[in-house]
Amino acid sequence: MNRDSRKHKGINTRLAHSGHDPHGYFGFVNPPVVHASTVLFPNAATMESRNQKYVYGTRGTPTSDALAEAIDELEGSAGTIIVPSGLAAVTIPLLAFLSARDHILIVDSVYHPTRHFADTMLKRLGVEVEYYDPHAGAEIAALIKENTRVVFTESPGSNTFEMQDIPAIARAAKARGAVVMMDNTWATPIHFRPLEHGVDISIHAATKYPAGHSDVLLGTVSANEAAWGQLHETHIAMGCCAAPDDVYQVLRGLRTMGVRLDRHEANALELARWLEGQPGVARVLHPALPGFPGHNLWKRDFSGASGIFSIVLDGGGREAAHAFLDALEIFGLGYSWGGYESLAVHVFLGDRTIAPVPQEGPVMRLQIGLEDVADLKADLDEALKAARAASS
Ligand SMILES: *Cc1c(COP(=O)(O)O)cnc(C)c1O
């Protein structure tokens, strides 16, 4: 089955078969893991012209091509670069498109390390950095200036899950010639395809659901035809390539991402709905809940949800948050998400400059894993009791 005939197949068929043609490599189902710096040329003339498919390890191998082609197929992109972390997947495209005196608009609910990069490195390089309200839709036009080069989006936002009107923002940005980037880690290309909604560059921390096992760091950046040349050139210039074993692990993870994500979604939704009715919970921040502001945007643009959301505790401060975390037995206390196991974090929101932060109590982010949901519920029940005891 080739790429064209896969186009109209279901998502799980595409996840299972994109990115590698077994008959191009002796029939082996999976591609080889190519460890390479040097690539040999057959003669001096070829060495001079570099007229062969692979020329050096930093510029791609059959392993990295397999993953890049799979992601291109899922994102509908013209090209994909693979980098050593999700954060590198944010920083490389920003460096690719921004120059001194350019202006960038970044959503205020952005992943914190993206903000850190903008506030340190980009400012040092002379880029004018400005944050905007995640609920700005078409009105973002008023913030776009003569020198606005990039509009950076992330939907839903990190930790508080604000939904952005991506098509409206993309239309406004494109009308003024700005490049639109989106950190699409939460949805994965299964639930949202940014390039079909006017975005130029779609970013993933493949560390999360694509890898899926909390043991690999990787990032992917996919561009449309117009943005691909500049992105690819920067990737080569930076020498920021990923290691072959990690690339292979993510390709392996993609094969099962559909079934894993279904379970993450179902477990998370069941818990989110249950948590809405629990004493000690002021609010549940999950875009698939009908009462969540932005739910309509999620319903209009996304085909599903993943397994991470937050709850706002009803009162209490740091003590209640710590009591909640310390009472958990199945949920681990740790950063990142997308793995098979459940995790909880007391969220830091002190970096927000525009987006209002929940005031009722501490915000606890929950990554819902693949465990049995009844066990997770019992674990959260104990944690809520501990939080209530600590805040009364
Ligand atoms: C985790 C994350 C990243 C960074 O990924 P790493 O591989 O951990 O560097 C980027 N964006 C979002 C939205 C993330 O959640």
Strand content: 15-25%
The biggest beta sheet reads: 7 strands, mixed
Query: What proportion of the residues is helical, as a percent range?
Result: 25-40%
Number-wise, the strands total: 12
Instruction: Measure the end-to-end span.
Output: 62 Å
Order of helices and strands: HHHHEHEHEEHEHEEHHEHEHEEEH
Spatial order of strands in the largest sheet = 1-7-6-5-4-2-3
What is the structural class?
A: alpha/beta
Bound molecules: pyridoxal-5'-phosphate
User: Class of the largest domain, according to the CATH hierarchy?
Assistant: Alpha Beta
What is the correct CATH architecture of the largest domain?
Answer: 3-Layer(aba) Sandwich
Overall tally of domains: 2
Task: Tell me what the structure shows.
With 392 residues, the chain is of the alpha/beta class. The chain folds into two domains: 3-253, Type I PLP-dependent aspartate aminotransferase-like (Major domain) (Aspartate Aminotransferase, domain 2, 3-Layer(aba) Sandwich); 256-391, Aspartate Aminotransferase, domain 1. The protein contains 13 helices and twelve strands. It has helices spanning 3-6, 11-17, 44-49, 62-75, 86-97, 112-124, 166-175, 188-191, 225-238, 244-276, 295-301, 318-327, 373-391, and strands at residues 79-83, 103-107, 128-132, 148-154, 179-183, 201-205, 219-223, 281-285, 308-313, 332-333, 343-346, 363-367. The strands form two sheets. It has a seven-stranded mixed β-sheet with strand order 1-7-6-5-4-2-3, with helices on both faces. Strands 8-9-12-11-10 form a five-stranded mixed β-sheet, with helices on one face. The termini are far apart. The relative contact order is 0.12. The protein binds pyridoxal-5'-phosphate. Pyridoxal-5'-phosphate binds next to helix 5.
